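Reading a protein record of the kind used here takes only a little practice. Think of the row as the fold of the chain written in a discrete alphabet. A record is reproduced here so that you can trace the correspondence yourselves:
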Amino acid sequence: MSVGPSESGVDGGRDGRGRFAKGNRVSKGNVAARKAAQCRAKLFSAVTTKDFVDVVKQTVALAKAGQPWAVKLLLEYLLGAPQPWDVLERLENLEERRP
């Protein structure tokens, strides 16, 4: 394969490793990912660290006050999403592992 994109388009604008090369005519890249990255960059520039800390503190306060969505949000971000395993199945698996 060629190192750069082919002018004739025979290699589909791919480099020597089979990936789309810069300047190819076949693919312009992932437009949705580019747009999401631009939105994410604007969000980061609009929110300060203090803003973020304030929001987290407010979410903690709401969780302590008993708001179920705030409790769920904090637990999922701090501990990870719950595993879809069945408790009885897990216990059986643990018992089988005993020497």
Q: What stands out?
A: DSSP finds four helices and no strands in the chain. The radius of gyration is 25 Å. Residues 35 and 41 are 10 Å apart (CA to CA). The mean pLDDT is 84.
